[in-house]
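Before relying on records like the one below, remember that each one covers exactly one chain. Contacts with other chains, cofactors or solvent are not represented anywhere in the record.
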Amino acid sequence: MNDKVYVINFSNKIIMDKIMANETTQQHLIGRLPRLLGSGVDYNDAIEVITNMNEVADWSKGWEKVGERHQIRGDKAFEAGDLITAGEAYFRATISFHTGQSGNVEDPDEKLRVQTLQRKAYLKAMPYLNPKTERIVVPFENIEFPGNLRLPVNYSNKPVPCVLLNAGADSTKEEFFTLENEFLKRGLATCAFDGPGQGMTWQKMKLRPDFESPVGAVLNILENRPEIDSSRLGIWGRSMGGYAAPRVAAYDKRIKACISLGGYFDMISFWDTSSEVLLDILQFAFGATDRNNAREIAHGFTLKSSAEHITCPLLIVHSDQDNICPYSEAEKMLATVGKNAELVMFKGGNHCCDNKPAEVRPMMADWMSKQL
């Protein structure tokens, strides 16, 4: 029997050629729970979806069913005036829809349909979260893309520092809700966004290497917000965002501190040894016509000739067991940036250290808070 199970653990994506509903497969999927739980998925929801799978399509169907259940629960709470419960339920619906569409690179129309459910659920949640979320619109070139701006707990009308959050190649801004809370409770505002190639912005513009350009448009918006101290802006990114964040810091000196989590220095250096699953996702994000076209585009995703221009403090966080982005990429980043950078390696961590959130997330938030 030649059943293949493809699973990746950068972001919370699961893509399978063919899946058998047996104990081995279920254990395979359960092993990817750290990424899911880190984004706010309920453990019991995940187990429910996994144990009820009989075929590939049951993954997205299962998460959509869970999302609909949370949304109904949110509607009932809203009607009863239980707004805190409503906000939490709507977020549970959001992250469930997100999980269901993640990794779908074969059916853009279906991906968009579920992403639309995700967006609508989060729009319902935004006013009732603690702290609440404000949707911002960022004009960039000939398009616009959305962002989520949150101000710290107990904000008191005094300008505060802000950290921008950069997603991976097939992630979305809503996936950062739980991470945002780490920065928010330390007095930092957060701004997560779906730039080119990310979330529903993919429909308008594909992933591009010069992420300093769209992030510059976000910074333009934040500079004019009275709640934000424009002299204290930081940037954080994971995976592909862990490449984008240092690149932004190299070219835009408005950034005063930068964190790269599980990021790479030069994509093409590990392209030929990457899994087909990862390459499928990157090809989709690029909008490439085929694998050869995708490989050509990948040459542009490099910190060569840019990382040496980073002058703000840079924290590089990586693990020795990252099977998506080799640890050597972090070492290259450190060597190129030099004295302005520090590298923290977590032994036994997976990609982006998703299996070590209790150690990694507070450390990053504390570091950023001290820098800003």
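Residues 58-79 form the longest helix (22 residues).
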